[in-house]
Design brief:
The structure holds two protein chains of two kinds.
Chain A (H helix, E strand, L loop, with lengths): L14 E12 L2 E12 L3 E5 L6 H9 L6 E6 L3 E2 L4 H6 L1 E4 L11 H11 L4 H14 L15 H13 L5 E5 L7 H18 L2 E6 L2 H5 L3 E6 L2 E6 L1 H6 L5 E5 L4 H8 L5 E7 L2 E6 L4 H8 L6 E2 L4 H20 L1
Parallel strand pairs in A: 3-8, 3-9, 6-7, 7-8
Antiparallel strand pairs in A: 1-2, 1-4, 4-5, 9-10, 11-13, 11-14, 12-13
Helix pairs in contact in A: 3-4, 3-5
Chain B lengths: L1 H16 L1 H21 L7 E7 L4 H12 L3 E6 L3 H10 L4 E5 L3 H7 L5 E5 L4 H27 L22 H32 L1 H6 L5 H30 L8 H25 L3 H17 L12 H6 L4 H15 L7 H21 L6
Parallel strand pairs in B: 1-2, 1-3
Antiparallel strand pairs in B: 3-4
Classes of the chains: A alpha/beta, B alpha/beta.
């Protein structure tokens, strides 16, 4: 018999969820490696990382779908994800990466089913369905068989299903995969509206950098390790070295080839008709000299992608060092 | 309770849209009952027989006539030597060969034994046993006639008269024995697969995961899957029962209500077994294959085909794991002998225990986590 785990320490004011050294192994493979982070109440927290980095495993542990191999998570003012699994589940909403409503039910039948499972009364359920279908603009599709909806509409219905019971915490696992830009825009507007209106806390995974920019807080995950976290601004400020940019008049590929292996540069790439280069720490002036043969270099605002690529390179280098 | 109801309603809504499955749910049990009910017949008549009559006398013709009159043997030709019999038997064109000795007639009247022999294809023991029993009956009858004539016996009664009274099935109809058991067998075959694929299908479609993050309990998920198919199973059972009574003329001697009670337990047991398999399988294909592990033993070890009393101990122990075994005892008891369930309390309690255990095991095995 496992002894009941002790009650978790109360979370500090303003923190809604705390993950503490959360780890998940599948056999010898470590999918998520001792990640710890806090999600502030009512904020949108983004998990960023390439496919297979452990984002989904992490989110599935936080929903209670996967048991952590080690570590734990605390939320909802003192519930433990293992100990209070059922209470935990009743207070969260989850939209998985794969569309997971019943294709052979109509939109309304799906919503009624999940609403009842979450314990909503008949009257309350009707109110919620009316409100959500109005807000997500699928009122006219309530009687449609879910199977015949396009990806964008399915995603809105799935979101509505996750929101029916007014969860305090919403998990979105790559919610906008396969959705057109306008649909993505609409979706994110709604997420922000909801977070602002109801004080709902949101955890979203994505590999779209533009979506990540909109999050209040970010965590970068790579190979199961959490390699950086903070606000989008804070994360960008953490970029080592300076990002320089120079407009090109000659052939961009010749220019890129010329600087590719320069020792003063960490990285270089084409950005439209401009050449961007990340200087090594303390080598900004040398890099400026190198780039000045193409034009006048200016300092550029790094994107999250710049930061991520740099972090990934740094992470790989450290791994090599550790291995050697 | 409301959650359980929602799960059941959802299942019926999905079924309603699956027109092909719905049709199969009605057609498959009906067809199977029809086909097996008519096809299975232990009472093998009209065996193809050739005659080698070396006697060619009134007596040899009397023997052939008696065999033919029994309707068990159809004479399809005659041969002139034993050598001709072999290829006919080998090829399977002929099942029996009657060889009558040259001196058959003379010996019969002379008072020594008159010889004839019947060659039977005993590679099929059912047919062979039947042919042997009928042939020895005819032989006894003719012997008695011969003896009576010699002794000048005038009485119309035989000195010893042992009569067999076949209760519960006076005409010894195979259908009467086969159909009530077929009820349980057809239900096993159709129902186990419904639940065996039920959870796996939701897992494959990703809907199970969505269900697992809700506060629904494991018990509700399992029972929510079993209940709709329990209703389907009872409907299927009613259809088969209708065929049994009206098409195959097998009346229900006992209480119909008690028969339904036993059937509810049995159907729940089979569905529970399917659910247990569903918690083990990763794909629908595996679930179907797993269910086959139970299907053949249900046919052969339940007592449906072969009596359990004749099995070696090890296999007799296995039969306790087969719900059809208990159901057969109940159905045959209620339908054929008119027994009440109080008389059948042993198989009834065993079946009830099995049902509770198997559903409990399915609930215990099913996890609300995805690993």
């Amino acid at each position: 018999m496992k002894r009941p785990s002790p009650a978790p320490a109360p979370l500090p004011e303003g923190i809604f969820l705390r993950a503490d050294r959360l780890t998940r192994r599948f056999g010898d493979f470590v999918a998520v490696n001792r990640i710890s982070f806090d999600i502030p109440r009512g904020k949108v927290f983004g998990f960023l990382g390439p496919n297979g980095s452990g984002k989904s495993t992490a989110i599935r542990m936080l929903t209670g779908l996967l048991l952590p191999s080690e570590g734990t998570a605390t939320a909802f003012g003192g519930l433990d994800v293992r100990r209070d699994a059922e209470a935990w589940k009743s207070r969260l909403g989850y939209m998985s990466q794969k569309f997971s409503l019943y294709l052979d039910l109509t939109v309304e039948e799906n919503l009624r089913f999940f609403g009842t499972v979450y314990g909503l009364s008949e009257a309350k359920l009707s109110d919620r369905i009316a409100a959500l279908s109005g807000r997500l603009r699928f009122l006219g599709l309530l009687g449609t068989l879910t199977e015949s909806l396009s990806t964008g509409w399915r995603q809105r219905v799935a979101l509505a299903a996750a929101l029916l019971h007014q969860p305090e915490l919403l998990f979105l696992d790559e919610p906008t995969g396969g959705v057109d830009p306008r649909g993505r825009r609409l979706f994110w507007d709604l997420i922000y509206e909801l977070a602002a209106d109801s004080g709902m806390t949101v955890l979203v995974t994505t590999h779209y950098m533009d979506e990540a920019e909109q999050c209040d807080t970010l965590a970068f995950i790579l190979n199961g390790d959490l390699i950086a976290q903070g606000t989008p601004h804070g994360v960008k400020d953490g970029l080592r070295g300076r990002l320089l940019e120079v407009p090109l008049s000659s052939d961009p590929f010749t220019a890129l080839a010329a600087v590719r292996n320069a020792p003063d540069l960490e990285d270089s790439y084409l950005f439209g008709l401009r050449l961007r280069a990340l200087a090594h720490v303390g080598r900004t002036s040398e890099a400026g000299v190198l780039l000045s043969k193409f034009g006048t270099p200016v300092q550029a605002e790094p994107t999250l992608e710049d930061v991520f690529v740099d972090l990934a390179r740094d992470y790989a280098a450290k791994k090599v060092t550790v291995a050697a | 309770m409301k959650r359980l109801l929602a799960l059941v309603v959802k299942e019926f809504l999905q079924l309603k849209r699956d027109k092909i499955s719905l049709r199969m749910m009605v057609m498959i049990p009906l067809m199977q009952t029809f086909i097996f009910g008519y096809a299975i017949n232990y009472d093998v008549k009209h065996l193809k027989t050739v005659i080698l009559d070396e006697c060619r006398s009134f007596d040899s013709r009397e023997l052939v006539a008696k065999m033919t009159a029994s309707e068990y043997f159809d004479v399809i030709g005659s041969i002139t030597s034993l050598a001709e019999l072999r290829p006919e038997m080998d090829s399977g064109h002929v099942v029996c060969g009657l060889v009558i000795d040259r001196e058959f007639g003379k010996d019969r009247h002379r008072g020594t034994a008159a010889h004839a022999f019947l060659v039977v294809n005993a590679s099929d023991t059912t047919t062979a046993t039947q042919a042997m029993a009928i042939a020895s009956g005819i032989s006894n009858q003719m012997s008695i006639q011969t003896l009576a004539k010699k002794a000048g016996w005038k009485e119309r009664l035989l000195p010893v008269d042992l009569r067999v009274r076949p209760w519960y099935n006076p005409d010894l109809r195979t259908a009467t024995f086969i159909i009530p058991g077929l009820l349980g067998l057809v239900l096993t075959f159709t129902l186990i697969q419904y639940t065996a694929i039920a959870l796996v299908r939701e897992r494959e479609r990703g809907t199970l995961e969505q269900l697992q993050v809700t506060p629904v309990t494991r018990f509700e998920i399992i029972i929510g899957k079993i209940l709709p198919f329990l209703v389907i199973g009872l409907l299927q059972m009613s259809l088969i029962l209708g065929l049994m009574v009206f098409a195959f003329d097998v009346p229900i001697a006992g209480s119909v209500l008690q028969l339904y009670l036993a059937s509810v337990l049995f159907i729940a047991a089979v569905l529970g077994l399917g659910m247990l398999l569903s918690t083990m399988a990763k794909t629908q294909m595996q679930a179907i294959q797993l269910s086959f592990i139970f299907l053949l033993p249900s046919v052969f070890l339940s007592g449906y085909v072969f009596p359990i009393e004749g099995m070696p101990l090890f296999f007799r122990l296995i039969t306790y794991l087969i719900p059809l075994k208990y159901y057969l005892l109940l159905v045959r008891g209620i339908v054929l002998r008119g027994a009440s369930i109080t008389q059948l309390w042993e198989p009834l309690l065993s079946l009830a225990g099995f049902t509770v255990l198997i559903i409990g095991a399915a609930v215990a095995r099913f996890k609300k986590t995805a690993d």
